[in-house]
Amino acid sequence: MIYLDNGATSYPKPPEVIESFMDVMMNYCANPGRAGHFMAARTSQEIFKTRLVLARLFNIDTPGQIVFTKNCTEGLNMAFKGILREGEHVVTTSMEHNSVVRPLKALEKKDITTTIVPCSKTGELSVEAVRKAIRPNTRIIAVTAASNVTGTKMPLEEIGRLALRLGILMMVDGAQGAGHMEIDVKKHRIDILAVPGHKGLMGPQGTGLLYVREGIPVRPLLEGGTGSRSNQLDPELTFPESYEAGTVNAPGIIALGEAARVLNKIGVGAIENHERKLTEKLQEGIKDIAGVTLYGPKNYKKKTAVVAMNIDDMDCEKVASLLNDKYGIAVRAGFHCSGLAHKTMGTERTGCVRMCPGFYTSEKEINDTIKAIKDIALSEK
Amino acid sequence: MIYLDNGATSYPKPPEVIESFMDVMMNYCANPGRAGHFMAARTSQEIFKTRLVLARLFNIDTPGQIVFTKNCTEGLNMAFKGILREGEHVVTTSMEHNSVVRPLKALEKKDITTTIVPCSKTGELSVEAVRKAIRPNTRIIAVTAASNVTGTKMPLEEIGRLALRLGILMMVDGAQGAGHMEIDVKKHRIDILAVPGHKGLMGPQGTGLLYVREGIPVRPLLEGGTGSRSNQLDPELTFPESYEAGTVNAPGIIALGEAARVLNKIGVGAIENHERKLTEKLQEGIKDIAGVTLYGPKNYKKKTAVVAMNIDDMDCEKVASLLNDKYGIAVRAGFHCSGLAHKTMGTERTGCVRMCPGFYTSEKEINDTIKAIKDIALSEK
């Protein structure tokens, strides 16, 4: 199978990640932080090392401010629901995923309001429009690092600077950015960063992280056992343990650490270059096919490894089915959990086909995909 | 290492579980419910099959009412916070884990009150005392299936009958019961059941489930993408997808399904018998050692595979350290995330040593543990 659904989850995983997972499961996986025996201690140590290596990946000085989550959605929910208070306001964009806009919609019941800044048809955001949307009660500016539908990158550095200047928190949904492009909490002045472990970071599903800058008070989403202060019903909140109630996914987290080691070694810049080359090849190869419509920025530097398209007025689900059934190519069609992005792009009725090359995609696979799309476009005439 | 910390997490896992995890990770792990291609479809199918096999394990007729969670704590939080409304009341017991009593403590801010019914020193619960604690606004009776400190089983069937008669929801924390004793939602009349995947079920960490009987309205803990109704910001709630926002831990869930298959094949009754034999052997072997104090019921049928003890006035952490350092035996000491249980047992100042044999514990390991405890008790004289 030619796997071009890396926007949903990366596949395959680096062999080191799978080996690491196996090693934990087979050899020492106890419950970290719950006992002092060798196995529990080793599990705790390896989890701590994962915090360090992830901190390095995002240039975070305080690894203890990294909370492990089950996915990026949990991190985003924890941040919005844990940080925002009644009467506060959020500025976000029209290219956000439902994991950002649905929690914000739910928070309307608590008198927390949101302004959605419209992006251009290619998903690009004007920092000036963000600035204009800010109100005296704006607490958070929340932006995706890159759109999951078009790959369009957001101007993180400029928004970070604006947020800093105005004393507003800068929150980044790293779901489609992490591992695919530079995300540097210092350079981009990010206060809150939510990231999945299983997409660009190439770790296992069931993992993710939320980073919150030291000093920002957060209410936890879950209360429960943390292995410490067992005798207190309402213990003082401390990072990270108060936000990791219950048994964490130790083998998943440790394998994610191994994935981050792989990324640090290769370098996110090198991965981005490789993926950009494949994206460019794919997009250049199909852009002149009669009937093909492409979405998102034309400049490859302005986006991550996503090619969004439609063929004539063919149902995008049908195109995806043909690619799968006839050519063995895995893509995703539909609305990609981002209804607002499709309104922005003008595809709110049709959805689109999304193709995401990944680190392990080969040039030959891209060539085969181009041929398949040509074939489908021609056969539909 | 002799691993007697199965109350924290089971180790080792059945080989089938590890093989299943590997198979998913290596061969087809896409994002379930997000695309139609072969890999995503297969991932979805295997997750659906896991719902079926878990439903069989707990005698659940409606597998679609099973929500996958990251751990038991998430399920308990989702149930309490999603079901209870302002002004309602909960009855629970003094043997509960912090994953039950801490969310309830947090809900006091929302005018949701809790009555904690005191258990006996051995952790046993009087159904009559539960009945007396019920108020007109009681919505949920929440009990653990078995205490995580003493193993004491709660009278699930009687409480279920009481709850049914009074129109109150019966909620069970299956953290220490599932896989170790019968939990049958029909026989025990359970409306809400939260279970971890990595303890008695012998699945991987990062998994768990929450079952909620059909027709009970639940607000989700997290909003986000679910792969369906992408164009709606506030879609109608449907089980299970509305409660599984974001990418689920597909390989973990599928491996948990394999674990449940192993359990269904061996039979929970057979596992319980095996573990009881080991527990009895351990407890009988140490009960007459001078200085050893045991906690919990004396009748082995009244508890799961937990032996809780102290040696004279030795610090329980020191006993655990000696067992680890000198004898290579992994146990847990301290308060086990259950301060209330220790108050009930009279060990609120000392904590205790907890030893939990598991399905893979051998008689030889139990003999070695008895010898080590004798040794420690003697050397301290």
Rg of chain A from C-alpha positions? 21 Å
Sheet with the most strands, sense and barrel status of chain A: 7 strands, mixed
The H-level CATH homologous superfamily of the domain at 2-9 and 267-379 in chain A, spelled out, is: Aspartate Aminotransferase, domain 1
End-to-end separation of chain A: 27 Å
Helical residues, percent of chain A: 25-40%
> Structural class per helix/strand content of chain A?
alpha/beta
Overall 3D form of chain A: globular
Residues in β-strands, percent of chain A:
5-15%
Number of helices of chain A: 11
Determine the mean pLDDT of chain A. Answer: 96
Number of strands of chain A: 13
Strand order of the largest sheet of chain A: 2-8-7-6-5-3-4
User: Which fold name corresponds to the CATH topology of the domain at 2-9 and 267-379 in chain A?
Assistant: Aspartate Aminotransferase, domain 1
Query: What letter string, H or E per element, gives the SSE order of chain A?
Result: EHHEHEHEHEHEEEHHEEHEEHEH
Quaternary structure of the protein: homodimer
CATH class of the domain at 2-9 and 267-379 in chain A: Alpha Beta
Helix-strand blueprint:
2 copies of one chain form a homodimer.
Chain A: E1 2-3, H1 15-27, H2 38-57, E2 66-69, H3 72-83, E3 89-93, H4 98-107, E4 113-117, H5 127-133, E5 138-144, H6 156-166, E6 169-173, E7 192-196, E8 208-212, H7 250-266, H8 268-286, E9 292-295, E10 307-311, H9 316-327, E11 329-330, E12 332-334, H10 339-345, E13 352-355, H11 363-379
Parallel strand pairs in A: 1-11, 3-4, 3-5, 5-6, 6-7
Antiparallel strand pairs in A: 2-8, 7-8, 9-10, 10-13, 12-13
Helix pairs in contact in A: 1-7, 2-7, 3-4, 8-11, 9-11
